[in-house]
Amino acid sequence: LSNVLKELRQRVDRALAEKTFLEEEISTRSNDLEKSRERLEASIKAREVITLVAKHTQEDLEKQLSSLVTMCLATVFPDPYGFKVKFEERRNTIEADLLFTKGEAEYKPIDSSGGGVLDVASFGLRIGLWSLNTTRPTFVLDEPFKHVSPDLHDKVSMLCKELCDELGIRIIMISHSDNIT
Protein backbone atom coordinates (compact mmCIF):
# COMPACT_ATOMS: atom_id res chain seq x y z
CA LEU A 1 0.00 0.00 0.00
CA SER A 2 2.82 2.35 0.79
CA ASN A 3 4.34 1.80 -2.68
CA VAL A 4 1.00 2.46 -4.32
CA LEU A 5 0.59 5.68 -2.33
CA LYS A 6 4.13 6.70 -3.20
CA GLU A 7 3.49 6.10 -6.89
CA LEU A 8 0.20 8.00 -6.75
CA ARG A 9 1.97 10.85 -4.94
CA GLN A 10 4.61 10.99 -7.71
CA ARG A 11 1.91 11.04 -10.37
CA VAL A 12 0.11 13.84 -8.57
CA ASP A 13 3.39 15.80 -8.22
CA ARG A 14 4.14 15.32 -11.94
CA ALA A 15 0.61 16.38 -12.84
CA LEU A 16 0.91 19.49 -10.63
CA ALA A 17 4.29 20.34 -12.16
CA GLU A 18 2.84 19.90 -15.65
CA LYS A 19 -0.17 22.02 -14.68
CA THR A 20 2.13 24.77 -13.39
CA PHE A 21 4.21 24.59 -16.60
CA LEU A 22 1.09 24.79 -18.77
CA GLU A 23 -0.31 27.71 -16.78
CA GLU A 24 3.00 29.60 -17.24
CA GLU A 25 2.97 28.72 -20.96
CA ILE A 26 -0.61 30.00 -21.28
CA SER A 27 0.34 33.21 -19.48
CA THR A 28 3.39 33.72 -21.74
CA ARG A 29 1.37 33.03 -24.89
CA SER A 30 -1.41 35.38 -23.70
CA ASN A 31 1.15 38.16 -23.17
CA ASP A 32 2.65 37.48 -26.61
CA LEU A 33 -0.82 37.56 -28.15
CA GLU A 34 -1.61 40.89 -26.46
CA LYS A 35 1.68 42.40 -27.68
CA SER A 36 0.97 41.13 -31.19
CA ARG A 37 -2.48 42.72 -31.11
CA GLU A 38 -0.96 46.04 -29.98
CA ARG A 39 1.65 45.89 -32.80
CA LEU A 40 -1.07 45.07 -35.32
CA GLU A 41 -3.17 48.01 -34.14
CA ALA A 42 -0.14 50.34 -34.35
CA SER A 43 0.68 49.01 -37.82
CA ILE A 44 -2.87 49.63 -39.01
CA LYS A 45 -2.76 53.21 -37.71
CA ALA A 46 0.67 53.77 -39.32
CA ARG A 47 -0.60 52.42 -42.64
CA GLU A 48 -3.57 54.79 -42.50
CA VAL A 49 -1.22 57.74 -41.95
CA ILE A 50 1.08 56.62 -44.77
CA THR A 51 -1.88 56.13 -47.10
CA LEU A 52 -3.18 59.62 -46.31
CA VAL A 53 0.24 61.22 -46.86
CA ALA A 54 0.67 59.27 -50.12
CA LYS A 55 -2.75 60.41 -51.34
CA HIS A 56 -1.93 64.08 -50.65
CA THR A 57 1.48 63.69 -52.30
CA GLN A 58 -0.11 62.10 -55.37
CA GLU A 59 -2.69 64.90 -55.59
CA ASP A 60 0.07 67.53 -55.42
CA LEU A 61 2.14 65.67 -57.99
CA GLU A 62 -0.88 65.30 -60.29
CA LYS A 63 -1.54 69.05 -60.17
CA GLN A 64 2.09 70.06 -60.61
CA LEU A 65 2.89 67.74 -63.52
CA SER A 66 -0.48 68.17 -65.22
CA SER A 67 -0.32 71.96 -65.18
CA LEU A 68 3.33 72.13 -66.28
CA VAL A 69 2.95 69.72 -69.21
CA THR A 70 -0.36 71.34 -70.24
CA MET A 71 1.37 74.74 -70.22
CA CYS A 72 4.19 73.36 -72.40
CA LEU A 73 1.69 71.96 -74.90
CA ALA A 74 -0.32 75.20 -74.94
CA THR A 75 2.84 77.24 -75.57
CA VAL A 76 3.81 75.24 -78.64
CA PHE A 77 0.59 74.06 -80.28
CA PRO A 78 -2.33 76.22 -81.46
CA ASP A 79 -5.03 73.69 -80.46
CA PRO A 80 -3.18 71.71 -77.82
CA TYR A 81 -4.04 68.66 -75.87
CA GLY A 82 -4.30 68.99 -72.13
CA PHE A 83 -2.25 66.65 -69.99
CA LYS A 84 -3.35 64.69 -66.96
CA VAL A 85 -1.70 62.35 -64.48
CA LYS A 86 -4.04 59.89 -62.76
CA PHE A 87 -2.96 57.58 -59.99
CA GLU A 88 -4.84 54.28 -59.92
CA GLU A 89 -4.53 51.26 -57.64
CA ARG A 90 -4.02 48.08 -59.62
CA ARG A 91 -2.82 44.70 -58.41
CA ASN A 92 -2.20 46.12 -54.92
CA THR A 93 0.13 48.80 -56.33
CA ILE A 94 -0.33 52.45 -57.23
CA GLU A 95 0.31 53.15 -60.91
CA ALA A 96 0.40 56.48 -62.73
CA ASP A 97 -1.56 56.85 -65.95
CA LEU A 98 -0.29 59.64 -68.21
CA LEU A 99 -3.10 60.92 -70.43
CA PHE A 100 -3.78 63.60 -73.01
CA THR A 101 -7.14 65.33 -72.80
CA LYS A 102 -9.31 67.12 -75.34
CA GLY A 103 -12.43 68.46 -73.68
CA GLU A 104 -13.72 65.62 -71.52
CA ALA A 105 -12.07 62.86 -73.57
CA GLU A 106 -8.87 61.18 -72.36
CA TYR A 107 -6.30 59.52 -74.62
CA LYS A 108 -3.19 57.46 -74.08
CA PRO A 109 -0.36 59.59 -75.48
CA ILE A 110 1.28 56.86 -77.52
CA ASP A 111 -2.02 55.92 -79.20
CA SER A 112 -3.48 59.32 -79.93
CA SER A 113 -0.97 61.88 -81.10
CA GLY A 114 1.95 62.65 -83.32
CA GLY A 115 5.53 62.52 -82.22
CA GLY A 116 5.79 66.29 -81.83
CA VAL A 117 3.15 66.33 -79.11
CA LEU A 118 4.93 63.45 -77.36
CA ASP A 119 8.25 65.30 -77.59
CA VAL A 120 6.83 68.43 -75.96
CA ALA A 121 5.00 66.41 -73.27
CA SER A 122 8.16 64.41 -72.58
CA PHE A 123 10.14 67.65 -72.24
CA GLY A 124 7.55 69.01 -69.80
CA LEU A 125 7.68 65.80 -67.75
CA ARG A 126 11.48 65.99 -67.54
CA ILE A 127 11.25 69.57 -66.25
CA GLY A 128 8.47 68.57 -63.84
CA LEU A 129 10.40 65.63 -62.44
CA TRP A 130 13.49 67.78 -62.10
CA SER A 131 11.49 70.35 -60.13
CA LEU A 132 10.74 67.69 -57.52
CA ASN A 133 14.47 67.38 -56.77
CA THR A 134 16.28 70.55 -57.74
CA THR A 135 19.85 69.36 -57.26
CA ARG A 136 21.03 69.89 -60.85
CA PRO A 137 19.86 73.03 -62.68
CA THR A 138 21.32 71.92 -66.05
CA PHE A 139 19.65 69.69 -68.63
CA VAL A 140 21.59 68.04 -71.44
CA LEU A 141 19.14 66.96 -74.13
CA ASP A 142 19.67 65.28 -77.49
CA GLU A 143 17.05 66.21 -80.10
CA PRO A 144 14.19 66.56 -77.58
CA PHE A 145 11.91 68.11 -80.23
CA LYS A 146 12.85 66.00 -83.25
CA HIS A 147 9.22 65.25 -84.12
CA VAL A 148 7.89 68.80 -83.70
CA SER A 149 7.04 70.28 -87.09
CA PRO A 150 9.40 73.05 -88.30
CA ASP A 151 6.68 75.73 -88.22
CA LEU A 152 6.50 75.29 -84.42
CA HIS A 153 10.24 75.46 -83.70
CA ASP A 154 10.06 79.17 -82.78
CA LYS A 155 7.43 78.36 -80.15
CA VAL A 156 9.57 75.50 -78.80
CA SER A 157 12.48 77.94 -78.46
CA MET A 158 10.22 80.43 -76.67
CA LEU A 159 9.07 77.64 -74.30
CA CYS A 160 12.66 76.70 -73.45
CA LYS A 161 13.66 80.33 -72.84
CA GLU A 162 10.63 80.99 -70.64
CA LEU A 163 11.27 77.89 -68.54
CA CYS A 164 14.96 78.75 -68.19
CA ASP A 165 14.11 82.25 -66.99
CA GLU A 166 11.25 81.18 -64.74
CA LEU A 167 12.90 78.16 -63.11
CA GLY A 168 16.54 79.27 -63.19
CA ILE A 169 17.68 76.29 -65.25
CA ARG A 170 20.11 75.83 -68.12
CA ILE A 171 19.41 73.70 -71.17
CA ILE A 172 22.19 72.36 -73.34
CA MET A 173 20.49 70.94 -76.40
CA ILE A 174 21.61 69.21 -79.56
CA SER A 175 19.33 69.96 -82.52
CA HIS A 176 19.56 69.80 -86.29
CA SER A 177 17.13 72.68 -86.56
CA ASP A 178 18.56 76.19 -86.88
CA ASN A 179 15.26 77.60 -85.59
CA ILE A 180 15.50 75.98 -82.13
CA THR A 181 17.90 78.16 -80.16
The helix content, as a percent range, equals 55-70%
What is the element string, with H for helices and E for strands? HEEEHHEHE
Overall shape: it is: rod-shaped
Category from helices, strands and their pairing: alpha+beta
Largest sheet: 3 strands, antiparallel
How widely separated are the two ends?
Answer: 113 Å
Helix tally equals 4
Report on the architecture of this protein:
The chain has four helices and five strands, in the order H-E-E-E-H-H-E-H-E. By secondary structure, it is an alpha+beta fold. The strands form two sheets. Strands 1-2-3 form a three-stranded antiparallel sheet. Strands 4-5 form a two-stranded parallel ribbon.
At a glance:
By secondary structure, this protein is of the alpha+beta class. It has four helices and five strands, in the order αβββααβαβ. The chain has helices spanning about 1-75, 110, 115-130, 155-165; strands at about 80-90, 95-100, 105, 140, 170-175.
